[in-house]
Each structure stands twice: as structure tokens, then as C-alpha cells.
User: What shape does this take?
Amino acid sequence: MVIRPGYAERHWTMTSWTDQGIRDKVGASHLPLSDLINAVLAAGMVLERVTECGGAVPLVLSLRARVSAA
Assistant: This one.
């Protein structure tokens, strides 16, 4: 697994490691994983499950969250 310089930066990018997706065509907003999870928590959600899939280097991250009852 390679984590390139700039991983912790927050920016819009069209840089991609493959031409099989949409990131190199329309772009994506890059956030470190901690920013993504903290945004869910700051919105008052409670994380129930986090999964990754796609091989040795995950291609998909999914989160299941619910609105906090408190």
C-alpha cells in the first residue's frame, strides 16, 4: 500500500491511480479519513458500522450511521 505525500491535505482533485473510475473524469473532494468520520459525528450521527472492500488496497469505504437519539 502506498500513501502518497499530500494524504492529509484537503482539496479537489482529478488525480487518479486508474482510468476505470470517475475521479479522473469529474474529480473528487479529497479528505483524510478522520475528517470524513468527524464530519459524520459533528452532524449528530452515531456510527454503527464501517466497512472497506476492493482487495488489498480498498476501493470502497462504506459507513452506516443513524441519528443520535439523545
